[in-house]
Amino acid sequence: MNEWIINSIGTISTPWKSIDNMPIQPLGAEAVKGTIKIFDEYLAGLAALEGFSHITLLYKLHKITDYELTVIPFMDKSPKGIFATRSPKRPNAIGISTVELLKIEGNLLHFSGADMLNGTPLLDIKPFFEKFDNRFNTRQGWLEGRDENDIRKTKSDDRFKM
Amino acid sequence: MNEWIINSIGTISTPWKSIDNMPIQPLGAEAVKGTIKIFDEYLAGLAALEGFSHITLLYKLHKITDYELTVIPFMDKSPKGIFATRSPKRPNAIGISTVELLKIEGNLLHFSGADMLNGTPLLDIKPFFEKFDNRFNTRQGWLEGRDENDIRKTKSDDRFKM
């Protein structure tokens, strides 16, 4: 049995009502604030989270209804395999974003770095730990030579609209 | 409708047949090699992946059958909310590991940094891009002051065995 049923643990609210002009990464959305409402039944799972300045969100790319194995990503002009990109039309449309946690009020998490659509179903939160999670001296394939400014400037368009 | 059905895209093979003594993070498993067999139908999605030295794997923590909202994590002695830890008994038991991609041979990916069980179902691969993905000057809550050596030394035990 290869299928697996998962349920969301909360809902993410952001200013992005459609993907047009949406930032493609948290780096391009540093000033963009969002909130997460955690469903009551999972509230106890937030204990001790506020000590972390950064958290990694796993969420459902909920507007994606099918996938393409080859895509032209936002930061390039030639086709790439979907797994060599962050493009959303993936076989399992799970997004990850490491964002800055600003404050927790009850079941409401305030964060900045919102690069996902309003209404996105949240699947998991993991604390970000610099010493676990950063990597250095990496090779970055077709992204080699691109820098933070390219990412900040690049906005989504309608190519992955369903 | 809050449920979502997902299918794995491949299977991860590692030396870890049970969680006893398994490393708790890729950092503790730098020398541990694993392979991923991608199912044939997703093979085209690997194009251009080999240029990346590091990839982030999303996978199902397939031995986990329920969750606990409060856990005592491996690197501490007092209870924490599950979302403030990387412990596996999560509401949606999805694991993430950023590993070093060594070689791709057809539908077989060779990597090092294997910190997951043998037979783990793979859900997604994302290319790791240092300039997107590293974060600095973070606060790390209850993990403050722990360093790479703590992580390297800490092995799993049977507390999350099902």
Question: In terms of topology, how is this protein built?
Answer:
The structure is a homodimer of 162-residue chains.
Chain A (H helix, E strand, L loop, with lengths): L2 E5 L2 E4 L19 E6 L15 E7 L9 E2 L8 E2 L12 E12 L2 E5 L7 E8 L2 H4 L14 H6 L9
Antiparallel strand pairs in A: 2-3, 2-9, 3-8, 4-7, 4-9, 5-6, 7-8
Give the key terms.
6% helix, homodimer, 162 residues, 31% strand, 9 strands, 2 helices, two-stranded antiparallel sheet, Elongation Factor Tu (Ef-tu), domain 3, 6-stranded antiparallel β-barrel, mainly beta
Structural class of chain A comes to mainly beta
Instruction: Give the oligomeric state of the chains in this entry, treating copies of one chain as homo and distinct chains as hetero.
Output: homodimer
CATH first level of the domain at 10-63 and 96-130 in chain A: Mainly Beta
Write down how many β-strands of chain A occur, each being a DSSP E stretch of 2 or more residues: 9
Order of helices and strands of chain A: EEEEEEEEEHH
Question: What are the low-pLDDT stretches of chain A, counting only 5+ consecutive residues below 50?
Answer: none
Q: What is the name of the CATH superfamily of the domain at 10-63 and 96-130 in chain A?
A: YaeB-like
Largest interface: A-B, 69 and 69 residues
User: What is the arithmetic mean of pLDDT of chain A?
Assistant: 91
* Portion of residues within helices of chain A: under 10%
> Helical region count of chain A?
2
Task: Please explain how this structure is put together.
- 2 copies of one chain form a homodimer.
- Chain A is mainly beta and 162 residues long.
- Chain A has a domain at 10-63 and 96-130: YaeB-like (Elongation Factor Tu (Ef-tu), domain 3, Beta Barrel), CATH 2.40.30.70.
- In chain A, 6% of the residues lie in helices and 31% in strands.
- Chain A contains 2 helices and 9 strands, in the order E-E-E-E-E-E-E-E-E-H-H.
- Chain A has helices at residues 130-133, 148-153; strands spanning 3-7, 10-13, 33-38, 54-60, 70-71, 80-81, 94-105, 108-112, 120-127.
- In chain A, the strands form 2 sheets. The first copy, chain A, has a 6-stranded antiparallel beta barrel with strand order 2-3-8-7-4-9.
- The longest helix of chain A is centred in the last third of the chain and has 6 residues, at 148-153.
- The radius of gyration of chain A is 16 Å and the shape is globular.
- The interface between A and B is large, with 69 and 69 residues.
- Strand 1 of chain A pairs antiparallel with strand 1 of chain B, so a sheet runs across the interface.
